[in-house]
């Protein structure tokens, strides 16, 4: 088969058909009537007409049997897809010299008030409202460039990284537990989140940001941080239900990784091609598994990834810890017991079915302990096996009541020793498999039905993959190469979406033919080019956006705007955007002075109503409430348990964290109203807000300014004063925290 | 400001009591017409998590006794995928005694005499087939039509398609009993549909709906005064910004306020007769939790809730089947029958579709995890052939659909795949399952994915 034909036809079946019936006369060897079917751009509109016609001299092929109905159908798909090959998103990015953002937006609303601008930019860049003193500072700065100076302060704030990390966490389907029935906690998932926050704060160029997450382990100068970055791939769900085959779970994870990358970087809905050629976009099933192949060579690896200050104490305590641990193991004769258990487990591997109890013990073991089977076979006495064994004695020892009781004692001492010993933070990372793992097309998407073998490669409609390097590293670099027309567009479009409430391509998750076309294609390309030309600096491109007149417009709707452009497709105004779940809670905590502003660190469990965690499987989800300041940390630090998530997050449309989420939906429900009115968290914030104003002569005014960052209108002042008179200041505080304006970015 | 003057002060719409209806015009949960007139107006889905054993409850297999203790023939098990046991596991005979009930003569096991007494109202399907054999994927498959995450669940599709009749309570309500399910919140997620359509969990303790009560120390009068002020200020802001979303927000707060009254009223059983309470078993220890949920389900349907999902966990009896199955039956059998009878005598059964079943069934072979315990035997997961029953809402009463082979291993007649079941349920609501779609990621999605046929034999 010719290279051109492979490029041109998108599935094996179609290529075979074209080769068999067309290529002899209209291929590289011969071009009858000057028509060559396998040449990109060939005029093929007549093909269907001719293969279905019965007219002698016109019908194709002129000899041999007519095409069957199935073949005609396949041909139709092929023609249709090829006629769509010139899709805007695959075309090279076009620069517009001398342009600015504002030159692409025809008509604009007047500029918003300075108070609105201060609050808007703060919420957009930091996910937090400005403090009253920050607003005063801005309003008091009457020199030119005051707005830009404020923007620079926000961009330099450590909370910038938190706000934009959350956006990336949506795409990375980040969570603190495995998902599925067992839904085990991932205590160190936060380590990758720390990396993301830090990357945004230090303005790590987006190309580096990409390469490190996709293939940081393969970089020549790979260090702990670049390996931590690969934790992106570890956010997939893991099904540890004992009956699930490990091969199947691995396949599902690799599918999830492939689809996540396609959505996050390329804006493509590749998932359709898991089972069949994509019906609308130029992704054949073969190509899908070529993309899949980049990720299929991954093996998971947990690494030590100490945070600053951890290594010293750990080193100092290590010898002592090892001694004590060994003493415990000796005291309870683990050295004698463990080999017996290992022998039984290995016997279950070698002779399945011989003993059902050990079969079951083994099934649970392999599901719960990653690489457990290999360890058993290759590393008897391994520390991880010991760790597992002490907590899972297996059927025989468990039946020995006396022994089981002894070991229970050991577990308590063991846990106490652990708690008393300085630990290193770990990270979930990946490595390349030492042995090659072949990839096959999974027929109809079923991993048990392997089809033809494929090599890693990128989509044919996009520029080719650079050779010479390791495939996954080459792929990472390809994603952010200057020739790739998708990544820069997809990323700046999402930034725009966050700043305007809708993307230039509204379907920010789908740049394919079923997605919407850009409303302002030149603007999109301008931004994409600027982004790359400025070294993929996220802060620079965001600064250009938020300092534009287009961004600074008022979000007021006029009857004319509402009628002509209800969806704001022309950007002739700013949009009012309901705050994210996290920003709503963060804002309430911030304006009431409760927010704990520490950046990074492990996830926290603020109080939640009894009964929420119990929804998890067999009551296995434990919600140990955080104490002290940890109760008031920002929403992105709230422990996300996939099967029983924190209710306020879900009430306000946080994603479920199972697949990449490119844009959140915004609902408006009575459950949200109840949440804001009556949730103890918001009530506590109202109380604290009220306390802050207690000594003030103008408490209503003080609370109003703290919450909304502007002065009240006369009506607002009077109405609240009236409420204060009859119901007290706490009622005023509660109303302020429930205002539509408070949970909206104007 | 009192309630009346609050309403009259509505500055940008019509004053007076039409406000709530006026605002409902933009409400995504306002009642909508389906594709055709459906028999069912609401659904109670009694989801029995973990997989109840069909050959010990619904599908008598005397041949199992003959095979008891022996492995199945190879021909039967060659392509079989099993969670825990091996293919040569011994067959487990069922000690249950089956007998025919009612005019229809449908056979049920001695563990469920109450449900059996409703035989003439039920359509028992003995030929359900699922595609997944692990809990969470199978639950996703049952509720979303796909084993992948992120799709809307059946309840979400129902309220998306039909809206809700209730102005004061959520349209899709979830009741949970037992120990918690594998699927958890994913069984009532709205997936990629707006979260307006997700299920609201009615809680077993504390507030029935999360954050329903006023915070401590806030009186009803004070809450109302605060809401009045809030409404006034939001309307004032609307006058400035003119964003219709502000109006929706005002509407949501008013519904929330009504819910604060309707929620406690829903869970207040004081107006139910002692006879009704006894029938549901709400005052007996064994049946209290499930009976309460059954009674709540009826009260929800009466109040216009569209979809009630009851989740009871767990029927996942890998071991000690006889003991554990009895416990679940003792907890659920009487209340389940009570719900059916109560709906019927109130004239609600015709317009309420009741569905009972798990995500898969259980194997004819036994699973043993402790060889020294004679009572240890249980059954593994079996998606290839299992039973569910439906009643009311357009379903043909007193019918059996489908059959399995002598050992209950394979379906021999009228296979009903999960997508067929879903298509049939949507049909009862008045939907052509191929047309109830939502565009997402560039294509139209539906509950039945790309498959599903309405099972006419199940319909009136």
Write the layout of secondary structure elements.
The complex is a heterodimer of chains A (746) and B (460).
Chain A: H1 3-8, H2 12-21, H3 23-26, H4 45-52, H5 69-83, H6 114-126, H7 132-140, H8 146-156, H9 158-171, H10 189-201, H11 206-215, H12 224-229, H13 246-266, H14 285-296, E1 298-304, H15 311-331, H16 334-350, H17 356-368, H18 372-378, H19 383-391, H20 395-399, H21 401-420, E2 426-432, E3 439-442, E4 450-454, H22 471-479, H23 487-500, H24 521-533, H25 538-546, H26 549-552, H27 559-564, E5 577-578, H28 581-591, H29 647-651, H30 670-678, H31 680-692, H32 699-708, H33 714-727, H34 729-738, E6 744-745
Antiparallel strand pairs in A: 1-2, 3-4, 5-6
Helix pairs in contact in A: 2-5, 4-5, 6-7, 6-8, 9-10, 11-22, 13-14, 15-21, 16-17, 23-24, 23-25, 28-31, 30-31, 31-34, 32-34, 33-34
Chain B: H1 3-8, H2 19-24, E1 42-49, H3 63-67, H4 74-77, E2 98-101, E3 106-109, H5 113-116, E4 122-129, H6 135-144, H7 154-162, E5 172-178, E6 200-202, H8 220-241, H9 244-267, H10 274-280, H11 288-302, E7 307-313, H12 321-345, E8 352-357, E9 361-367, E10 378-382, E11 386-391, E12 399-401, E13 403-404, E14 411-413, E15 416-417, H13 418-429, E16 437-440, E17 443-446
Parallel strand pairs in B: 1-7, 1-8, 4-12, 4-15, 5-6, 5-7
Antiparallel strand pairs in B: 2-3, 4-11, 8-11, 9-10, 13-14, 16-17
Helix pairs in contact in B: 8-9, 11-12
Quick take:
Chain A is built from 34 helices and six strands. In chain A, helix 4 runs antiparallel to helix 5.
Structure description:
The complex is a heterodimer of chains A (746) and B (460). With 746 residues, chain A is mainly alpha-helical. Chain A is built from 34 helices and six strands. Chain A has helices spanning 3-8, 12-21, 23-26, 45-52, 69-83, 114-126, 132-140, 146-156, 158-171, 189-201, 206-215, 224-229, 246-266, 285-296, 311-331, 334-350, 356-368, 372-378, 383-391, 395-399, 401-420, 471-479, 487-500, 521-533, 538-546, 549-552, 559-564, 581-591, 647-651, 670-678, 680-692, 699-708, 714-727, 729-738, and strands at residues 298-304, 426-432, 439-442, 450-454, 577-578, 744-745. In chain A, strands 1-2 form a two-stranded antiparallel sheet. Chain A has a two-stranded antiparallel sheet with strand order 3-4. Chain A is flat, with a radius of gyration of 30 Å. The model of chain A is unreliable at 1-10 (pLDDT under 50). Chain B starts with a helix and ends in a 14-residue tail after the last strand. The longest helix of chain B has 25 residues, at 321-345. Residues 1-24 of chain B have low confidence and may be disordered. Chain B is built from 13 helices and 17 strands. Chain B has helices spanning 3-8, 19-24, 63-67, 74-77, 113-116, 135-144, 154-162, 220-241, 244-267, 274-280, 288-302, 321-345, 418-429; strands at residues 42-49, 98-101, 106-109, 122-129, 172-178, 200-202, 307-313, 352-357, 361-367, 378-382, 386-391, 399-401, 403-404, 411-413, 416-417, 437-440, 443-446. In chain B, helix 8 (220-241) packs antiparallel against helix 9 and helix 11 packs parallel to helix 12. Chain B is of the alpha/beta class. The chains are: A mainly alpha (746), B alpha/beta (460). At the A-B interface, helix 17, helix 29, helix 30, helix 33 and helix 34 of A face helix 6, helix 8 and helix 9 of B.
